[in-house]
Amino acid sequence: MIKYLVASIISFVAVICGLLMHTELFYSFTVSSPTDNPTINWIIDAGHGGEDGGAISITGVPESGINLQIAKKIDYLFGFLGEPTLMLRNEDVSLYDDSATTIREKKVSDLHYRTEITNHNQNATLLSIHQNTFSQPEYSGTQVFYAPTDGSQTLAEQLQCDIQTYLQPNNQRYAKLIYETVYLMNHIDNRAVLLECGFISNPQEEKILQETDYQIKFAMVVTSSCLKQ
Q1: Model pTM?
Q2: Across residues 118-144, what is the average pLDDT?
Q3: Which of 36, 161, 181, 202 has CA 20 to 30 A from 141's CA?
Q4: Per CATH, the architecture of 2-226 is what?
Q5: Around Cβ 82, how many Cβ atoms within 10 Å?
């Protein structure tokens, strides 16, 4: 009941965030860490980072930066509402250990690190933020994928529904089980979803995915949807 009430006032929070986005005050919120908060409810994974920029947009922008911008806004909203979170990365970095030297070794080390941290916080839900791309530029729309773990499909379907209802009324996509090739999502026990926020190979969608106002709206819908679960 309390979480539904919180979700119902998320639009008010979004207005506040919209105002704060243009001031230093917005960036003064504290991001939770395992030390600050022993109980983490939400692990927010901004996909890729550092040497691994992920997909490249139609104008040459790596998805890693867009992922981080959106992930931070989701994190700030959760923090504003008192939900303990953990950001797996707060900067444009890859999370590999010192023993990794080649690009391949760094990517493997990065994935193992994200997996280890996620499994360490067994009761937390993982939200992995990514951008999509395709050879045909007309493709667009958010698609939510879910891990093969308890509760993941229900959360993914709620997210997909709310994104379509409140943000993308023409989006015909549906929540899907994550591909077996996605390492992180297939090696954790947590409830987990991966959001392909949009297609950065689509000129119109690539543009709005980098707009602050749209990112705030997207973060608002995601946060509200998660708090319904």
Answers
A1: 0.84
A2: 96
A3: 181
A4: 3-Layer(aba) Sandwich (3.40)
A5: 8
Task: Please give the full DSSP string across the chain, using - where no structure is assigned.
Answer: -HHHHHHHTHHHHHHHHHHHTTSGGGGGSPPP-TTT-SS-SEEEEE--BTTB--SB-TTS-BHHHHHHHHHHHHHHHHHHTT--EEES-SSS-----TT--SHHHHHHHHHHHHHHHHHHSTTPEEEEEEEE--SSTT----EEEE-SSTTHHHHHHHHHHHHHHHT-TT-----EEPPTT-HHHHS--S-EEEEEEEETTSHHHHHHHT-HHHHHHHHHHHHHHHTT-
Q: Which residue has the tokens 């979700």?
A: 7
Fill in the amino acid letter for 24: E
> Which pLDDT value is given to residue 38?
57
pLDDT digits (tens, 9 = 90+) for 81-108: 999 999 999 998 878 888 888 888 888 8
DSSP 8-state code for residue 52: B
72 pLDDT exceeds 60?
yes
